[in-house]
Amino acid sequence: MTVVDETPPAEAAAVEAVPLAPEVPDVPRRIGGLTRSGVLSLFGAAASGLCTAVLLFGELAPFSGSLGFFVTAYAAFLLVYAVLTGLEEDGQAVRDRVMTVVLWTAAGLLFTALALVVGFTAWRGREALPHGNFFTQDMQAAGPLDPLTNGGIAHAMLGTLIMITIALTITVPLGLACAVYLNQIPGRFSRFVRTIVEAMTALPSIVAGLMVYAVWILGLGMQKSGLAAGFAISVMMLPIVIRAADVVLRLVPGNLTEAAEALGAPRWRTVWHVVLPTARSGLATAVILGTARGIGETSPVLLTAGFTAALNANPTNGPMISLPLAVFNFVRSPEPTMIARGFGAAAVLMALVLVLFAIARVIGGRGPGHQSKRQARRAARASRQDLERFDELNAARGAGNCATSHEAPAPDDEPASAPTHGDSH
């Protein structure tokens, strides 16, 4: 059967004459970065918000106060920026842009506050920090009226290091062990322990100091010392480390532990070789948070360590002082030199915290799957050693196979060996 095309020639020519539309390439949507319109909208909204606040506070309304002025200007800025962004984008993009601006503003305010605190402390302590004796001498032979060339905070620096070392020695094993227990052994008792830990997070520091003072000093008859202060600081650090470590251990993928247990590894080996190494960087962060909480405590140290102006390196005998307590005593004095020593001690305390954080970060390493250059070189060296060992084993196995294949078989007409004494019987 033959199919006949009944399309008129004129229509067929018209169809052939219509050009095909060119294919438009798929352009991915831009979801980040700065654009010209976005920058213009941002600065235009900022100018509009500032002008609106000036009109409201200066002409239209009886408003006053710098805080209200900035809040009004910022609210008008967000409103105008949302309107300008909505002229070109859809609602989802408008919400995304506005929330991005809000988050950047919050981050900028926090960074500004931190910079002001650090800068103000360093600026007020600039008179005491340049003197070398400030870091090498104690206040035993210096008084409030002595110049800054006499006396220092060596006793407070050593006391802080000793107290925080004692607290970390107690807190890190107990905190990590408790976090592993809460994560790996669920049950009624673990829920009870988690509730107690959450309640201890809000424990006032003075209560921890009073507890150690009542048990260690009044009950057992011990004297005030750096050891007692370390006990009190560890009470404050322990719930912070437990909660942060528990949250980090929950983030370890379950398929890792399942794979380890499927290979026959016991629970303790799975935790030691799989769970803890995977969460190492997060556990270092938990220790950092606990250290930041304990190193700045003042009231527990005042109740349990006492006060001294002399250098004491023995945490079990005699009173001891820490940097926060030294700052507290220095700034209470009306003398400018003592106040300068207080701000200098505060600057040293911040520098000490920064150093401890850096050490914890180095010990914690990077997250799982992210190796440093030294770790990558170590892994490559171990891989080469394994490859050489496998090559040696394969070479030895090949030599043994060749020796077996080249061994001549015994002839069929070879006489049988003489019977032994056991065969004759």
TrEMBL record:
Residues 366-425 are annotated as: Disordered. Its main location: membrane. It comes from the Bacteria. InterPro entries: MetI-like (IPR000515), MetI-like_sf (IPR035906), Phosphate_PstA (IPR005672), Phosphate_transprt_permease (IPR051408). Keywords: Cell membrane, Membrane, Phosphate transport, Transmembrane, Transmembrane helix, Transport. It holds the Pfam family BPD_transp_1. PROSITE patterns: ABC_TM1. Residues 383-394 have a biased composition (Basic and acidic residues). The keyword Protein biosynthesis does not apply. It is found in: Cell membrane. Residues 157-360 form the ABC transmembrane type-1 domain. Residues 371-381 have a biased composition (Basic residues). The chain crosses the membrane at residues 39-61, 67-87, 99-123, 153-182, 202-221, 227-249, 270-292, 343-364. It is a multi-pass membrane protein. Belongs to the binding-protein-dependent transport system permease family. CysTW subfamily. Part of the binding-protein-dependent transport system for phosphate; probably responsible for the translocation of the substrate across the membrane. NCBIfam families: 3a0107s02c (TIGR00974). This is Phosphate transport system permease protein PstA.
